Structure formats: C-alpha cells, structure tokens
Amino acid sequence: MRSLIFFTLVATMLILSSCEKELPTHLSFDNYAFSTTDQDGGTWNTTLISSTYEISISEPTATSSSEYQQELAELKQEMSQMSDDERNAVEYWSDNSTIRWNEIALELIAKYNLIPGYNDDGTYTLPSPANPAGPPAFPFAHPPYAVRALAYMSVAQFDGLITAWHHKYIHNRPAPYQLDNEIEYAYMDNGIPSYPSHGAVIAAASKNVLTAMFPLEAEYLAQKEAEHLKSLLLSGGYVQSDIDAGKQIGDEIASIALVRASNDGMKNAQTPKPVSDSIADAAFDRYGWKWINKELPQRPVGLTPLYSKVRMWNVPNVEMTRPIPPPAIGSPEYLKDVEILKDYADNMTTERRRIANFWQDGLGTYTPPGHWNEFAKEFIVKYRLNPLRTARTFAYINMAMMDGGISCWDAKYYYHYPRPIQTIDGFKTIAGTPNFPSYTSGHSVFSAAGAEVLAYIFPQEAAVVREWAKEAAISRVYGGIHWTFDAYIGTDQGIDVAQYTIDIAKSDGAD
Question: What gap in Å lies between CA 201 and CA 197, rounded to an integer?
C-alpha cells in the first residue's frame, strides 16, 4: 500500500508540473539585434563530428526559380491565415529558440527529479529505460542524469548550428521578407541567410535528444517541435525548403549525439549491491572508513557509484582531476571541522538559512546544473548573443559541469567519506540526507565549473559568478550535509575540471 500511495503521489506531481507556467524557467525577453552574426561561424571547431562537411544538404533552388516562387506564395497564404495561437507561438519561440529548448529541458528535469518509492517489503525498484512507464517512471533526473541530458542536447545544438552556419554562408539565400516587401518579418533583421533555418536545426536536434532522455515525453516533445517549425514559417523568415534543410541537419546531428550517449557508460553507472559494497570495502581498506547511507528506509545502493566511469568530454582521464584525500577521521583538521559544523547548527542565522535554501536545488527542481543554465540564459539575453553563440555557451557550460560531475563522483566513491550526520553524534541537517558519499560536494564542483565557463564567456560577470559559486559551496555546509573541506576543495576541483573545457573553447575559432 505504501508504494501505491507513493506512485499515486508521483503521478499527481508529474501532471501538476507539466505546464511551463508552473515552473520558474520561462524568461520573458524582447527580440533583439544580435551583437554579432559570426559569418565565419561555419569554420569553428565541432565536437561530435570532425568537420561540417560530414552533414550535406541539397543545394537550394534559386530565389528566381518557379519552385521558390511557389514556396513564397504558399508562405504568404499561410501567414494570411495565422491564428492568435500561432501568433503567440511565433512570439514565444523568438529568433533565439535555443533558449526555449533549454527551458523545456529544465522543465523535464524538474518533473522527473523524484526519488523512486520503496516497495512494501522495503526494497527499491529502479527506473528502467526498458520500461519507462514503470513504476517507477524513467528517468530519475538526479544531478548526474540532468547535466548529461543538458550536455548532449547543447553539444548537438552547437555542432548543428556550426554546420548550418557553414551552409548559410556558402549559399547566402536571402530571407523571404528580404525578397517580398509584402512579408512582414516577426523578428529583428539580423541579416543572416535563411538556408538552412537555424531554428529548425535547434528544433530537431533538441526534440530528438530530449525524447531519448525522457521517453515518456515523446508526444509532448513532438508537439513542441511541430509548433516551433510552424512558427519559423509564419515568422516570415523562411520558406519550407529552408526549414526542411535545417531539420535534416538537426536530425542527423542528434543521431550522432545519441550514438555517443548509448556508449558513454551511463547505463552502468547505477550498480548492483555487490559492486557497490566492493567499492565501499576498497575505500575502507585504503582509509579505514566508508560512507553509510543514513536514510530511513535505507536504500541499499548509493546514487550512481560508477558515474565516474562515464566518458568525459574534455578531460582525458578522470584521475587527472581527483583531489587530495580528505582529513582522516579523528585528525585535528577533522575535529576542527566538527566544531565548525556544530557552531553553524547551534547558531543558524536567517541569512545562512536563506543561502542554504536558495541553493538547495533538491527534488522537484532542475538541480544545481539547471540553476547555472538559468544564469547562462540571463547573460545570453543581456549581452544579445546570436543563436550560434548561445548554443556555444550552453555547450561549454554543460560539458564542463558534466565533466565536473564525473570527477566529483570519482572522488565520492574513491574516498567514500562519511557525511557529518554519520560521524557527529546527534547531528541534524536542515537540507536532507543525500544518498551518496560526502567528499567532494557536488554543488561545489558543479557551481565552480559552471561559474568558470561563464566567467570566460562573460568576463564582465566574472567576479559575480565566482562569488555565486562560493556561496553555493558554503550553502551545503550551512545545510549540515557537507564538511567545509568538501566545499572548498570541491570548488577547486570544479575550477580545475572547467579549465579543460575552457582551453578547448579558446581554440575553437570563436574568439
């Protein structure tokens, strides 16, 4: 009966959280003139493919041809019959739709970021991609899963747009509104060629990757893709052949991304209990301690013990970023930290509680990586980035954070360090009890990695984002779930990991 009640509750929560207006992820912004158009963007380095020539599209027909003129006439007919809902969709999607698909991804992460319930006998059934409807529903969008979904979508978007830019400036096809003054364009005229449609690349790539990551949302995502593609036509910026060519690129790059995803090791990250126990025992043999889950009822296996084995994007070997060992339990450094945590617990201020709550990003939220995607989105609009640079920003921040998460999980399960609640008698937290070892702090690593990428792309904001990362790190100490060394060494770890991605970014041709 307990499991039935839990799954009923989960289903209700999923339904209630399905509407975008009920989640704080929608950024309202006016369409803007891009700060640059990056005509050389088609020469930038890619990640999933070795060259933009790997994806070919047909040569567009001349704008003077009868075929194109027929497309133009059909476009004008469609625009003359536009409904109010279609006008609203055109406004919603904007000419930088990468932002909207990132928001959709964050919605789905929050919707599926729910711990599977326990069965009547106290055991747990894990979500399975082979049976996504469950129960429990697949996936459980915890932080490692969330950042991986964001990374694959963002990298596919970026490679797809580099490919689109390559073809745009080879063919230089004018947009419909530039050829017919009776067509009113819905957005700012940024002078970017229309063939292939960059929006269609984003729609197809995003829909395909997110469908693989969230299979129960296939119908919803197909509807969003169709709405987006129709809005591109009705914007007056593209004829159907522009959109079809963009969709082809998006479909192909998503397929390449998903081949990588299917072989990156994530399917083995959640281990059976004997493997999990062997990892814990190895840490105990090395250091004389091991983390024990203090949840009630206790789940038999921690969260993704072998996430450290997932293929990284820009770090050659995870051990290159493994931090120094944590203090020995009972050592002077450890005992000093015990007193610090007791003091925070006994003297919790309103400001410390606010910081702990603001950065908690727990169940039912878009997780810490999602929080940093929100910051990225706001800077993208503030600095008027074009779609190509928008995709670049999301790709690099999410690759860095995914690599950071893999490095963090390597430290967590290699050192298997207990949390404060395990070793301090009578200690209580204000932020729950995560189901994985303490050292290092995931929030600290994710936040530092995200902040470093944002500091590189938006140097005007470097001081601000780095202070945010420090606050995110200390928030976990205020919450009582981490040691101070989890936080400050985790911050250093995130900075270290991010530098590998920043070095790649600095040489990609965009600077």
Answer: 7
161 touches 45 (CB < 8 A):
no
Q: Which of 305, 385, 440, 317 is nearest to 98 (CA)?
A: 385
If one counts every other C-beta atom within 10 angstroms of the C-beta of residue 371, the result is: 22
- DSSP of 276-340, one letter per residue? HHHHHHHHHHHHS-------SSPPSS-S-TTGGGSPPSS-S-GGGGPPPPPPPTTSHHHHHHHHH
Torsion from C-alpha of 375, 370, 94, 249, nearest 10 degrees: 120
Does the pLDDT value for residue 148 go beyond 80? Answer: yes
How far is residue 472's CA from residue 319's CA, in Å, rounded to a whole number? 25
Per-residue pLDDT at 23: 53
CA angle, corner 402, sides to 397 and 404, nearest 5? 95
Burial class (CB within 10 angstroms; exposed 0-12, middle 13-18, buried 19+) of 446: buried
The structure's pTM equals 0.95
412-445 burial, b at 16+ Cβ within 10 Å, e below that, comes to: bbbbbbbbbbbbbeeeebbbeebbbbbbbbbbbb
Cβ-contact 50, 177 below 8 angstroms: no
pLDDT tens sequence across 467-493: 999 999 999 999 999 999 999 999 999
- 34-58 pLDDT, tens digit per residue, is 999 999 999 999 999 999 999 999 9
- Whether residue 10 is predicted with pLDDT greater than 50 in this model: the reply is no
Angle, helices 442-457 vs 484-506, to 10°: value is: 30
**8 Å CB contact between 239 and 176:** yes
Are the CB atoms for 111 and 103 separated by under 8 Å?
no
pLDDT of residue 11: 38
- Neighbour tally for 242: CB within 10 Å: 27
- Paired tokens of 501: 């991605």
Sign of the alpha-carbon dihedral angle for 121, 123, 127, 130? negative
Largest pairwise CA distance in the chain: 82
* Dist CA 131 CA 454 (whole Å): 38
Q: What's the one-letter identity of residue 463?
A: A
When pLDDT is cut at 50, 70 and 90, the band that residue 511 belongs to is very high
Dihedral pair phi/psi, residue 430, rounded to 5°: -110, 10
Mean pLDDT value across residues 146-154: 98
